[in-house]
Amino acid sequence: MTTRPAIEIAEELLDRTGRGLDSGDFDLFADAFALPYRHDTFDATVEITDLADIRSVYDQVRRHFRQIGVTRIIRFCVAADYQTPDKILSTHESHMFSGSHRIRPPYPVLSTLERRDGAWKITASNYAIGEDPAHAAAMLPKEKQQTSASHAAPRAEM
């Protein structure tokens, strides 16, 4: 089996999810994730187990970005390393702009990428978006918004 550079795989998934968010192509976006998928913010840890929850988060994040005037998001991979032949830990940084004006300070995201049935998918992400509580809230599926925040436990690792 040929091993591609971990950073190339991470950037490919960033590109796919970014294009899906920008264009409104939910299927392109959702195809980058494996279920169950877990993501953490400073406020909550959520396990997403079905496509409806991914759709809920996708719609809410797109709505939030429109509300705060995001016109461009630049995301780039800072580091990516294989943990096993089928698991990569990657860190990317997200920068949000309205025109040429930075909306928020950049924030890092630590993601776990796993090869499932021959395809690389995102299985977990940890978003350090403490400066934007509305963004963190948009990351929760609607039906989990009230229960998850009250039951969140700090996570030391992905």
TrEMBL record:
It comes from the Bacteria. This is SnoaL-like domain-containing protein. It comes from Marivita hallyeonensis.
